[in-house]
Amino acid sequence: MIYIKDELNIHDTKVEVLVGILNICALVGSLLAGRTSDYIGRRYTIVVSCIIFMLGSILMGYGPNYGVLMAGRCTAGIGVGFALMIAPVYSAEVSSPSSRGFLTSLPELGISIGILLGYISNVVFGKLTLKLGWRLMLGVAAIPSLFLIFAILKMPESPRWLVMQGRLGEAKRILLKVSNSKEEAEARLRDIKIAAGIDEFCTDEIVKLDPETKSHGEGVWRELLVRPTKAVRYILIAAIGIHFFEHAVGIEAVVLYSPRIFKKAGVTNREKLLLATVGVGLTKFTFVLISTFLVDRVGRRRLLLVSTSGIVVALASLATCLTIVEHHQGQKLLWALSLSIVSTYIFVAFFNIGLAPITWVYSSEIFPLRLRAQGYSLGVAMNRLMNATISMTFLTLYEAITIGGAFFLFAGISVVALLFFYFLFPETKGRSLEDMEELFSKGIRARHQGVEIQARSKV
Q: Any idea where the Major facilitator superfamily (MFS) profile domain is (predicted)?
């Protein structure tokens, strides 16, 4: 953004639109991806996302003017929407219950690695000419997309999607490869068949399903939004709520505008600003990595509550320090400047050890099989909407109520998020995907079952 603004000579409003438009388009992409993945399968939906994102990256890397750059951001945004929806769903459906939290949080770890590599490559490409540097910063994203298109050939299809199509033989062979034992694979297949409305003792390789049983995603929106059961309504509130709060706490303001925050805190040299953002990326990566090993041990609920509590404290500290710095502009308050930077890193740490990965883990595992792809896509759509809202309004917000006031607002929203998670989120650790609807049918009372809820099945 620093370099684009310099070359194209655009003002802050255009910068905000350029940043946020990707997430508006990702909202559209995530809604399209739900039905697409029900129709062509989870695996090939990943291919679609890669192709779209690669085209967007090439357009951004070309970017001769603001219009083409916007077109590239929009195209890439649709690909992002596809990817954000399909990656956690695919991971959850392939995973064993004992390792589902770890494996489903890997997409968030991948995002963290991508952000860190983006910050590092920005430092490297920033040394090139103005015309070439920022274009390589954006265009280089086409490389991992191309790699994944070929890597997908070695990845299995989701066994749950195969069962929904009546392809039981293929589903069983894949489950034998991705389960910890033959007994676990058989138990998982049995549970999936029951959830899909197929006789659990059926041993046919291919089953011809009734149109009402075979699913390409027909009628799902009606079941989700028009006539949801009590359990589905509760699941939908939880999924949309956690995606709303993931960005409403202001993380996008830190990830995208950290150079401005550090500048307000007293770091003015451009190279030092870029290096400070590398610290943000490194902190994000480190704590997401830690969380992947904790989520199946500590549990989703406990980690989420600890994370959100830390976010409240860090944001309150950051807001206070930035307000003090702003009110003493003629003085060099080293302690306030230092604490602003430390609070930023603490916020990123607490966010990424809990709320960031658990948003994707939790919302991808709680929907019933028949509703998972399209129900999850609603959560991702809310996620992208809030991401776009924060990224497109933060500069305007902090100019209106000061940067300290903006972070006080985020701190207040974080308190609401903490209460929401405490009262509405039951523990899902250790439960099979087929057990989730029963868990949520108990409503808020499910929270009182404790954090160590065991699966009904023997798996």
A: 1-429
